[in-house]
C-alpha cells in the first residue's frame, strides 16, 4: 500500500488549501515560489496525496494570513490526524492498495450505504462465512493469508459497535435475495450466518433490507458498491464500486449523486427490515435446515 494513512483528514486539508489559494487569487506556481517548495509538492497537498507535514501547513497559514485563526487550528489538527497510522496498515501485506483505501474511508465515514450481490455485506459476515468464501474464491491464497483476511473483516466490523472519537458507523445495507440463497461453505455455516443477520440487523445503527426476486430489476442490481457519507460539511461523499479488477473510486459530484439515487431506488424497492428478517427466517428453514 503506497499511502495507507487516514484519508479524510488529507481530503479536508486539500479542500481548505484549494479554497485559500482561490480566494487569494494565486496560482500554484506563485505560492510554491513564495514558500520555496516545489509546485508538485503543493499540488500533492491540494490533491490529498501523501502525508502533509506540519511545517508546510504552518508556512501556508502564514502565507495566507490566517495564523491564529480557527481555520489554521483546524488545518493543524487535520495534519496531525493525517500523520497517524491507520490500524489497517497491519494487514498491508495481505491486501491490495485499493482495498486499503476502501477500509480507510469506511473507518472514517459516518454512514455507509452498501449494496451486495451475490454475497452478504462484509460488515455483517460471520468469520466462518468469510473464511469459506475466501477458500472457495481465492484458491491461490494460503490458509495463513485467509486467516489474516478474516481477521481484517472482523476488525472492520468493530466500527459498528464502537469507534474512538466518533459514534459507531451507521450501516444501511441492501442485499439481493440471491446472496441469502447462495451456498457458502456448508448448510451449517449458512444457518449460523442467517441467524447472525437476523440478530445484528436489529441494532439501532444497522438497517438491512433484502431486494427480492419478486421485484423488477433496477439499473445497479448487478453491481456491488458502497456509498460513504462523512460528518463534516467540508467532506464530500464518495462511492466505491467493487469489481473483479478491484475497487473503483468515484468522487465526481455528479456521478456520486447518481449513485445515491441508485441506492435510494434499491432501498425503496426492497423489503422493509421486518419483512427482510421474515424472508431470511423462511430461507433458513426451507433451504438450510
From TrEMBL:
Residues 17-71 form the HTH cro/C1-type domain. Pfam families: DUF5753, HTH_31. This is Helix-turn-helix domain-containing protein. Signal peptide: none annotated. Transmembrane segments: none annotated. It comes from the Bacteria. SUPFAM superfamilies: lambda repressor-like DNA-binding domains.
Amino acid at each position: 500500500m503506497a499511502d495507507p494513512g487516514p484519508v479524510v483528514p488529507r481530503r479536508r486539508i486539500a479542500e481548505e488549501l484549494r479554497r485559500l489559494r482561490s480566494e487569494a487569487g494565486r496560482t500554484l506556481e506563485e505560492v510554491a515560489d513564495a514558500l520555496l517548495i516545489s509546485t508538485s509538492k503543493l499540488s500533492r497537498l491540494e490533491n490529498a496525496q501523501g502525508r502533509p507535514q506540519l511545517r508546510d501547513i504552518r508556512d501556508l497559514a502564514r502565507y495566507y494570513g490566517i495564523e491564529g485563526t480557527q481555520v489554521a487550528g483546524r488545518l493543524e489538527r487535520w495534519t496531525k490526524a493525517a500523520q497517524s497510522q491507520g490500524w489497517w496498515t497491519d494487514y498491508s501485506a495481505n491486501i491490495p492498495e485499493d482495498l486499503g483505501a476502501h477500509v480507510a474511508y469506511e473507518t472514517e465515514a459516518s454512514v455507509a450505504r452498501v449494496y451486495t450481490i451475490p454475497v452478504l455485506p462484509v460488515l455483517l459476515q460471520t468469520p466462518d462465512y468469510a473464511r469459506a468464501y475466501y477458500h472457495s474464491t481465492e484458491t491461490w491464497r494460503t490458509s495463513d493469508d485467509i486467516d489474516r483476511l478474516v481477521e481484517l473483516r472482523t476488525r472492520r466490523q468493530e466500527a459498528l459497535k464502537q469507534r474512538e472519537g466518533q459514534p459507531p458507523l451507521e450501516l444501511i445495507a441492501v442485499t439481493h435475495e440471491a446472496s441469502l440463497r447462495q451456498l457458502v461453505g456448508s448448510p451449517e455455516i449458512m444457518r449460523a450466518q442467517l441467524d447472525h443477520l437476523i440478530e445484528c440487523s436489529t441494532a439501532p445503527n444497522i438497517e438491512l433490507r433484502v431486494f427480492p426476486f419478486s421485484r423488477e430489476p433496477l439499473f445497479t442490481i448487478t453491481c456491488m458498491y458502497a456509498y460513504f457519507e462523512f460528518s463534516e460539511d467540508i467532506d464530500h461523499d464518495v462511492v466505491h464500486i467493487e469489481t473483479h479488477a478491484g475497487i473503483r473510486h468515484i468522487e465526481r459530484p455528479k456521478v456520486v449523486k447518481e449513485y445515491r439515487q441508485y441506492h435510494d431506488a434499491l432501498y425503496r424497492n426492497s423489503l422493509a427490515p421486518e419483512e427482510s428478517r421474515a424472508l431470511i427466517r423462511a430461507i433458513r428453514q426451507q433451504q438450510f435446515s
